[in-house]
Amino acid sequence: MSFRFKQAVVTRDRPTIELVPMIDVAIFLLVFFMLFTTFKTNEEGIEIDLPRAATGSEVPPSNLVVSITESGALMLDGEFTTLENFRAVAARVAQANPRATVTIRGDSRSYWEHAVSVMDTARQAGLSQFAIGTQPLNR
């Protein structure tokens, strides 16, 4: 009696690289970096080109920061506002601290009239200390 053994044919599959998950990850990374590298961080949330000054100096943080855009729109605490609303806020701040400082960050292309109206409104509310936001000449 002779036994015949069949030899099993061993076939090895070649390892494969799955491309679909790799493409998914690549697209996810691409979209992630496209979205999060384009965000600019501004103090007030709008882009203002401050006037340049050689003698500007840093001052302690002020109680009220008003930004004036090129078109003359006012921003207070990151939200657009009107002079009437600013007057009410300035009056509340003046009641709490009559020596509070108002910092005006006006765009260099805006009309000076807008800054004067903000200063006048703040004075009517009881605030009389002002600072003008500038940037260095070499920037």
Question: What does it look like?
Answer:
The chain is of the alpha/beta class and 139 residues long. It has a domain at 64-132: 2-Layer Sandwich (Nucleotidyltransferase, domain 5), CATH 3.30.420.270. The chain is 33% helix and 15% strand. It is built from 3 helices and 5 strands; from the N terminus they run αβββαβαβ. It has helices at 19-36, 83-96, 112-125, and strands spanning 64-68, 74-76, 79-81, 101-106, 129-132. The protein has a 5-stranded mixed β-sheet with strand order 3-2-1-4-5, covered by helices on one side. Helix 2 (83-96) packs across helix 3. It is rod-shaped. The protein starts with 18 loop residues before the first helix and ends in a 7-residue tail after the last strand. The mean pLDDT is 81.
Fill in the keyword field for this structure.
139 residues; Nucleotidyltransferase, domain 5; alpha/beta; 33% helix; 15% strand
Strand order of the largest sheet: 3-2-1-4-5
Which residues form runs of ≥5 with pLDDT under 50? none
**What is the mean predicted local confidence, pLDDT?**
81
Architecture of the domain at 64-132, according to CATH? 2-Layer Sandwich
Biggest sheet character? 5 strands, mixed
Number of strands: 5
Quickly give the structural class. alpha/beta
**CATH topology label of the domain at 64-132:** Nucleotidyltransferase, domain 5
Order of helices and strands: HEEEHEHE
- Mass-distribution shape: rod-shaped
- N-C termini distance: 98 Å
Query: What is the CATH level 1 assignment of the domain at 64-132?
Result: Alpha Beta
Proportion of residues in helical segments:
25-40%
Give me the number of helical elements. Answer: 3
Range of strand content: 15-25%
**Rg value:** 31 Å
